[in-house]
Amino acid sequence: MKSENPLALRATPLIRGAGAFIVLAGAAFFMGDYHNDVYRKLLLWVTLALGYNFLFGVCGQVAFSHFAFYGIGAYSIVIFLFQLHLPFPLAAICGIALCIVFALAVAIPSTRLEGFYLALVTLALGQLFIVVLNEGGTVTGGTGGIANYRLPEIYGLRLRGPWYTAVIALLVVATYAVLVRLDRSGFGRACRAVRDNPEAAAAMGVDVARTKVIAFTLTSVLAGIGGMVYAFVDNTVNPPIFGIENAFLLLFMVIVGGAGRHAGAVIGAVLLFLLPFWLSPLVGHHHALVFGVLVVAAILLEPRGLIGIYDRVADRYKGSPSR
Amino acid sequence: MQDFFELAVGAAASGCVYGLIGLAYLLIIRPTGIINFAVGEWAMLAAFGGYVTLTKYEWPYPVGMAVVLGLMFVVGWATERVVVRRLVEGGAPLLAPILALLGMLVVFRESISVTFPPDPHPVPDAFGIGRLELGPIGGTYQSFFTIVTALGVFIGAWLFFERTVAGKAFEAVALNRRAAALMGIDLTRVTALSFGAGAVVAGLGGLLVAPNISAHYLMGVPLAIQGFTALVIGGVGRVAGPLLGGLLLALAEQLTVRYAPVPAGYAQGVPLVLLMVFLLLRPTGLLKAKV
């Protein structure tokens, strides 16, 4: 795809991004409080799914720590802001630094070997994180978590209601833009090579372990930033949100939607987020059972997920082979 | 000293349970390469089986145990038949069955959470509640029963792999699937049996630990983590690996609970720390595989 006008080439994704942001953020202004709340959480799930898809779908790494990092982000910003009284930008930077430290500490030992050590180590980390939150005393607020705080004024602005939803919309669009960019860069190709054939990737000069560590750290930081934004959605943080259950759900979203495709992650996140609302009259709180069956069915019947089905249908109408 | 022996017996019993879960991983990893995250849920299923047969219907312990373990074999075999076999024979990447088993983890757990109320369900001790004193070493009946049973299973597994033709077939598949198939070993059967045996061993672990921690639908994941840590510490190469790893892990946990100045819940961090230390310093585990 070559364009005559280099400006047009550069402007197109920017305009598309701005358009997406305006639509996503604008929608919030037509919603009531309840729907705004649901909508914000949907957008946060989409953000998380996009990041997780980069790690799992593009780089082929299974990890269960995404919600732990989401939690580290959420708790750290609250603790830094309201217990240590740091200014907002500093608190955010400290939170990100914390995510990086934990991500490196986990990823460096577990990516030295072939196999699924990262999955198991992050499973242990996710489990431990909840214990630490529950036993953390006054720092983490124990099982009750931390509540009764509000987003401070940032440069004299106090964001609330749909305006805060707009911040989340910005987060989704920015995450999407960063990940698509990254996916198309040399690093994204290295990630895909590591996923498909680590030996061949190594032979081509890709540092396999380093690629895995960077991908894990980067997506963990994205999850942490998502968590910081989440902290001011409910204005409370408590342990159950950040458990292993949600980490499984995130993985299922990406598998059902279609691993390795950004659109797949979005579809999976939206579908599995909304499914409980439709299912609850039928199965009550046991929708996780439906998710489990759904993911096993997806792996057995359509490993490329819903986006794979879409591709096939689209191909039949267009009559062109898929890419 | 008395205190330490008491702790050591308790740790040995927990370590044997972790070792059994680790062995369940190992039985499946060796011939197939598949890490089965659902072994912890298998232990949980067996613990609930123990609740139903032993607590609710009050069957004699050996009968209940035999029925539960028999059912666990069926569960393991069926898991392989329904979920894994299609993927392996269809030439899917190794990740596919692993993820499918992760889905099964949720299916197992949620099936139990739908069926039973969410509170802990008691499972009885094998020989009732009582203490056995052997000189300075003392512990509950259940601790000694756990240790003896687990040792029996490990000796049995060792004899199977070392002394029987079927065990050699398992080893051959572990070394080289294609060559083993060419030698006339039925890969499908070996895989199905490894899942069945894995479920029985994991189920035994769940049944043995259930009197201490009660059957609960969330008990699976911690056991899965502890069992895997046992495997990493001890090494995948040898049958004795998970047992040694499990004993070390349990000892480290008990010492942390007893002597470390942190809340007892933080003992759940011990597997993570040991995992990271061993992956950094000795990724092959303590016991080397035989050449």
What would a concise description of this structure say?
The complex is a heterodimer of chains A (about 325) and B (about 290). Chain A is an all-alpha fold. Helices cover about 75% and strands about 0% of the residues of chain A.
Folded structure, characterized:
The complex is a heterodimer of chains A (323) and B (291). Chain A is built from 14 helices and no strands. With 323 residues, chain A is mainly alpha-helical. Chain A has one domain (17-243). In chain A, helix 8 (186-196) crosses helix 10 (208-230). Chain A is globular. The model of chain A has no long low-confidence stretch (mean pLDDT 89). Chain B contains eleven helices and two strands, in the order H-H-H-H-E-E-H-H-H-H-H-H-H. The mean pLDDT of chain B is 90. The interface between A and B is large, with 40 and 41 residues.
Search tags:
heterodimer; A: 323 residues; mainly alpha; globular; B: 291 residues; ABC transporter involved in vitamin B12 uptake, BtuC; two-stranded antiparallel sheet; 11 helices; 73% helix
Topology:
The complex is a heterodimer of chains A (323) and B (291).
Chain A: H1 6-28, H2 33-58, H3 66-82, H4 88-110, H5 117-135, H6 137-140, H7 162-184, H8 186-196, H9 198-203, H10 208-230, H11 244-257, H12 262-283, H13 287-301, H14 305-318
Helix pairs in contact in A: 1-7, 2-7, 2-10, 2-11, 2-12, 3-4, 3-5, 3-10, 4-10, 7-8, 8-10, 11-12, 11-13, 11-14
Chain B: H1 2-32, H2 39-56, H3 61-89, H4 95-115, E1 131-134, E2 137-140, H5 141-163, H6 165-175, H7 177-182, H8 187-213, H9 220-234, H10 240-259, H11 270-281
Antiparallel strand pairs in B: 1-2
Helix pairs in contact in B: 1-5, 1-6, 1-8, 1-9, 1-10, 2-3, 2-4, 2-8, 2-9, 3-4, 3-8, 5-6, 5-8, 9-10, 9-11
